[in-house]
Design brief:
The chain has helices spanning about 5-15, 45-55, 80-90, 100-105, 110-115, 140-155, 180-185, 200-210, 215-220, 225-235; strands spanning about 1-5, 25-30, 35, 40-45, 60-65, 95, 120-125, 130-135, 160, 170, 190-195, 210-215, 240. Helices cover about 35% and strands about 20% of the residues. It has 2 domains: about 1-100, 3-Layer(aba) Sandwich (Udp-n-acetylmuramoylalanyl-d-glutamate--2,6- Diaminopimelate Ligase, Chain: A, domain 1); about 110-220, Udp-n-acetylmuramoylalanyl-d-glutamate--2,6- Diaminopimelate Ligase, Chain: A, domain 1, CATH 3.40.1390. α5 crosses α10 (about 225-235). The chain starts with a strand and ends in a 7-residue tail after the last strand. The chain is of the alpha/beta class. The chain is built from 10 helices and 13 strands.
Length: about 250
Amino acid sequence: MIHRDEFGAQVHALLEADRFRDYGPNGLQVEGRPEIRKLVSGVTASLALIEAAAREGADAILVHHGLFWRGQDGRVTGWMKRRLQVLLGHEINLYAYHLPLDAHPQWGNNAQLGLKLKLSVQGRFGEQDLGFLGVPAQPLTVAALSALLQYRLGRAPVVVEGDGRPIRRVAWCTGGAQGYFEAAIAAGADAFLTGEISEPQAHYARETGVAYFACGHHATERFGAAALGSHLAERFGLEHQFIDIDNPA
């Protein structure tokens, strides 16, 4: 058991949350009961996750995508009202960590994806050092890396093959990081892995020869919250459950 304020302070320090320029508030977003015994982790603070956590008797939810983002109009209506109604009605604390959970070298989304793919991390790149650089145990073909991604993530990636070179150096950044592709190319990557692809990236891949893999925003970000939740449960003596709400994005 741990008090919600102590829990928040410990997680904030562990993830070095204050050093990031982010798109919304990191930390406690909705205050619930004072003591935390059971923690549920998930990717996004959707109504489905919140209702599932309430059924499981959670005292706190830890997510990557919280409720509040820069540019929202702030009115508590519609979907926002329904999510907050369940959280407040069951006195569940909601903690959200966006970029800090992408970046953490051990428990973060990028670190955990690298572990799943058995990539040896050798450096970082991009704005706020969010992107990771690493190498596989041996060079991979585009087809082999695509098959590995499908096996680990449970879905086939969208692939732009580049020039078909052997993949010796991989750059990756989970979620909607298609804007990091040019920095990955400049960092000397043979392939770039992320969640999404926009129109320009297909042309960059064809023109530079660097392979591009769009593996799913949700699919690439399923591992950080689960790993962090397990770590925090062990550290503070909590019950923990990761709940994965499927998302095709």
